[in-house]
RNA sequence: GUAGCCAUAGCUCAGUUGGAUAGAGCAUUAGAUUGCGGAUCUAAAGGCCGGAGGUUCGAAUCCUCUUGGCUACACCA
């Protein structure tokens, strides 16, 4: 049995020690103040690693103790040094700061045991272990293939699911497929007019693109056909009345669209625990509204439409049921939320949906609360910004929308060219599999490196670049360490090297920093979960990689002086590699042994 | 018009309980390889953190105002 290394515990023990020292100091100065109890000791990170592992600014105590923070720092340092239960490590006073150098290396052995034992579970924690979380994302329309905007949604959803899962939550990923409505009828109508019974197979086109082609064709045709909209409406009525031919065509085209979309999911590593179809849920919610009317939280207009007054949340009035008694988007969402809570009594439901729908979710959550549903407080709209291109916005009308499949194809080709130009075809195993894994890393990392709340500009060439802050760079780091460890395994066999891990040999500042960074991973996972922000993981990962890169460049590992030093550095490298792998899995970067 | 979000280096982005000299990458310039994968590493240069006030010992971070951009405000989804 070993003592599990938890960075928080280390911080806590120091916080306690400092707190004790300050109390003793105040006593010696004959100062009694309640402020002393309420003023929190802040454990921060110093700007440079040479200064220490943790820093505590003493400004807040200056007023209470009536001394300059410089003097306080120096005095407290002396008191701590004489403390009986001083945590391992040492303290320096640098100006108004107390800097702490923790005994990181002393913990390295336990860290290694822990990582060696739990492996892919290192970083996991229990901060959300009592939570059942449902997360909805993607939600494609079945009239066209996915585009770059969907890819941001998908990767955020998948990553958040992985992150909160690592925090111990029971995660349930759902997708609501928008497979009905006027837009679907439009592509059907175009197919009826211009399709000539062709199929994706007969035309040799990916099936969702085949359907998308007719949606485009409808729009072209509609420009010169004043009756287009009306015809589409009539088709929708037929569909709602269950007209056999209409339903047949609808289901044939939907199968095409959905199969194609799921091929794309497979390529990008997206999956779901449950699929909901709008065609099956769109009537839900009506009863809910009628019940709300009975309970007096909604009201009826003269024309029989049902409304809610949103004055309480500073908004206008909103219609919930049309005068003809039919549902709206909002009504449907009310119904699906309730039926989902019946399917899985979640503590929390996260909707990954673009920021343009903030108003919708504000209203949705308010209405659910008005209906008296206790869980309505635990709904969350994870809103993300738009993806633009270097030369402007994506506009479907101007044909500047970046198709998801095309983009992945392009990125894969670029990766493939790079592998070929480096003459590494024979070393990478399956060439096309490897290049598509690199493409995925490029795409996901680029999309997740930007805070979801912000609009972003996607530059394809920049994303696939093998230099700089990119997914492929991170993969390369992993492949390089893997390659080195393979070599080590061979020499170990030859020499039958049998030495123990002696962390005290890791004397370099960069080794200390690497160990500390590895120890901070669980906290980073926790923070990313708390903030629902994968960017934290991306930033952490890049920092770790860069740190290791420099180490690897400046110091020999397999040719270090002694067997003992070689092994110590190999263990450090193994730990870095494990953390890389674990972090990769949280942000959709495939791990490659070789690339 | 009303509300919400955003504004950090030439470009793309980090930067949370307010703390030390605001950080990366790209591009530019100058370097490093008798090395475990150079798809690498080092360095230089590059900043009125949109602007103005305020709170504070201390503000990119909090508050107010202001400018600019995006989005939403359908008996569409």
Q: What does this entry look like structurally?
A:
This protein has helices at 7-28, 35-38, 59-65, 69-82, 104-118, 148-166, 182-194, 200-203, 207-223, 228-240, 244-268, 278-281, 286-294, 329-343, 358-370, 404-421, 431-448, 460-464, 471-495, 509-519, 521-531, 535-554, 563-586; strands spanning 54-57, 89-94, 97-102, 132-136, 170-177, 274-277, 299-300, 306-309, 317-321, 348-354, 379-384, 387-388, 456-457. The protein has 595 residues and is α/β, with parallel strands linked by helices. It has 3 domains: 7-102, Gyrase A, domain 2; 132-384, HUPs (Rossmann fold), CATH 3.40.50.620; 404-586, Isoleucyl-tRNA Synthetase, Domain 1. The chain has a 5-stranded parallel β-sheet with strand order 6-5-4-10-11, with helices on both faces. The chain has a 3-stranded antiparallel β-sheet with strand order 1-3-2, with helices on one face. A 3-stranded antiparallel β-sheet has the order 7-8-9, covered by helices on one side. Helix 15 links the parallel strand 10 and strand 11 (379-384). The mean pLDDT is 93. It binds one RNA strand of 77 nucleotides through helix 3, strand 9, helix 15, strand 13 and helix 19.
CATH topology of the largest domain: Rossmann fold
Shape: globular
Strand order of the largest sheet: 6-5-4-10-11
Average residue pLDDT: 93
Write down the Rg: 30 Å
* Count of separate DSSP helical elements: 23
CATH superfamily of the largest domain: HUPs
What can be said about the biggest beta sheet?
5 strands, parallel
Strand content: 5-15%
Helix content: 40-55%
- Please count the beta strands (DSSP E, at least 2 residues each): 13
